[in-house]
Request: fold
Amino acid sequence: MLDLILIRHAHAGPHIEPDFDRKLSSRGEIEAQQAAQVLKYSNHNPGLWLVSSAIRSHQTADILLESNSNLLLDRKNDPKWYEASGSLYQNYLELESCTTIYLVAHNPSISYLASYLSNTNIFMEPGNIVHLQWNKLDSWKEITKASASVNYHFYGK
Reply:
């Protein structure tokens, strides 16, 4: 079984700084704390955390893991999750071996990936979580368009 927990970074502050360096706003910190509670009670397995190197994504992941350290097997921070298009996201996932992956990244790519893999129109707002699951697959190389089921979509409060 494969589990992909897609997390869009929470709201960031204004575009005063370069986009990559934007920090979470107060609203974003609250969104991330709410998302952390969802993860806490969702009964997910520990897994690999793939996190965009952008500051707001780092901060979102840090807040999520503060109360969910039991979900962390390993963490990879990488600028490719900031720069890549949605179609490349799937290619990058195929390189991983851990059967549970948490991906903290950006729109439009993260919404594209959720929609493409589930064949559902999914738009992820900041702080949203989408849990995709493949009950009969064991390798990320096996995932294809419309092959995932949506276990849940947390929209925030």
